[in-house]
Amino acid sequence: MSSSLPNSRPVEADVLERIKKIVGPKGCVTDPAEIEPHCVSWRDNWKGWVPLVVKPANTAELAEVVKVCAETGTAIVPQGGNTGLTGASQPHDDGSEIIVSTSRMNAIRDVDLANDTMTVEAGCILQSIQSAADEHNRLFPLSLAAEGSCQIGGNLATNAGGTQVLRYGNTRALVLGVEVVLPDGRIWDGLRSLRKDNTGYDLKQYFIGSEGTLGIITAAVLKLFPKPTDVQTCFVAVRDVAAAVELLGNARAIVGDQVTTFELIQRYGVEMTVRNVPGVVDPMEQAHDWYVLMEIAGQGAPGTLAADVEQCLAQGFEAGIVVDAVIAANRAQAQSMWAIREKIPEAQNHEGASIKHDVSVSISRIPEFIDKACERLDAAFPGCRPVAFGHVGDGNIHFNIGQPAGTDGEAFYKLYPDVNKVVHDLISQMNGSISAEHGLGRLRMHEAERYKSDVELDVMRAIKTTLDPGNIMNPGKVVSIARPEAPDV
Ligand SMILES: Cc1cc2nc3c(=O)[nH]c(=O)nc-3n(C[C@H](O)[C@H](O)[C@H](O)COP(=O)(O)OP(=O)(O)OC[C@H]3O[C@@H](n4cnc5c(N)ncnc54)[C@H](O)[C@@H]3O)c2cc1C
Questions:
Q1: Ligand 1 centre and the CA of 289: distance in Å?
Q2: Which of 39, 157, 237, 256 is deepest in the core (most CB within 10 A)?
Q3: What residue owns the CA closest to ligand 1's atom 41?
Q4: Is the model's pLDDT at 4 over the cut of 50?
Q5: What DSSP assignment string belongs to 225-280?
Q6: Mean pLDDT along residues 206-232
Q7: Fold match flag (230-345 vs 352-438)
Q8: pLDDT reported for residue 473
């Protein structure tokens, strides 16, 4: 997928020269072979082109680059690890933009253990932040499969979710302050490490989740947490999806917010992972329709929470909502349970074409959503194979629709808009979200415009045009705004 911007023209050579001078040879990528990976998405479904990728060494340099872009009407695609899934981190294909990558800005500026905070630059890889927290006997709980490549600036810009949102919240909840280069090149130093600050609008929240359309995040103050010392993981077969929701409520009644993970997995998900990914095994002898991967974590000596887990499962058996369960005896067993959940997307690639959705509804309505969606999809596209999995604990279901067995994958992909419409119309009727954690980017921008009210879209456009009147920050992503003609330079 690719698309051109309205009213755009290739970046002028003299503008490129001015920008190159600011960052110097170390901060410029001009070789097309090195530029290319920056222009292609992880799933290879978005491709564009830029004449220049810049990698500023620090905030001041980055701000100078943005000033030149603002003056000349040159559009910028901010980029972190380029693992985003919505086409927001890749440029359009007309050469009218440059990529500004934060990859060289990767210092940990400060660790304040008494305040439980860490101040990091945007280009820090998520995994390196987790490790740095660990070295200080703390937890930075943001965790997702792309953590070895994605950068914290990208995590903030997408308000990433991941596997521990139930306990710790999404990225938005893990940030106390940010430093941002605004679309006019000014630096806003909002690097506060305060847990209480009611001095007007909470400006950092505009930039978190804005997918690079309002400014470039250059640093952030992150919250740290005590490292859990007791982790209990179990794989539970449940009667149905409603039983999974009931089990979550029961578990929370027993251990409160120590439930850190509660992931729903369908039988087909287990089958295809075991079939397609070497090393993945079904932990149960008998097959069941629905499973939950549950993790409970807290402080105290290892094993302290085991009795609570057993109580929760025993209650579940008695109430008929749990039909089988395996508790991991050690970390290796826990990891092998996690592998089933984490390898579902990879396994589905082996099963042919699939049309993916990342939706959310209130937790109480998850069973209704899955039932109705499967029914409507089967009526419209007989034989299609929906796979529902994901973060039941925060109402977020990844709902991937596989092509009917033995049919033509390309033909199924052509049904993309029709399949989306069935799923997203239902989500909208149920007051849910068509993008729970991946964002809108280009993938869902126009769909969001279909489902959001005029009032909401007006407010979004007002924020965008106030902060970025020239529409140079990642144009054509998140919310559509006609891009003004670039000024003559
Ligand atoms: C295997 C895999 C698993 C994933 N799992 C999850 C998951 O569980 N949960 C989830 O939420 N996402 C998930 N993602 C999506 C992706 O990893 C996240 O969106 C991640 O937060 C993006 O970080 P990044 O550094 O790669 O950002 P990029 O892809 O480089 O950029 C993403 C967006 O942020 C903007 N941006 C990047 N850096 C900045 C900055 N410094 N300032 C302003 N804007 C910026 C870009 O312009 C773009 O709009 C997954 C992706 C993959 C490939």
A1: 32
A2: 157
A3: 153
A4: no
A5: EEPPSEEEEEEEEESSHHHHHHHHHHHHHHHGGGEEEEEEEEHHHHHHHHHHSTT-
A6: 97
A7: yes
A8: 98
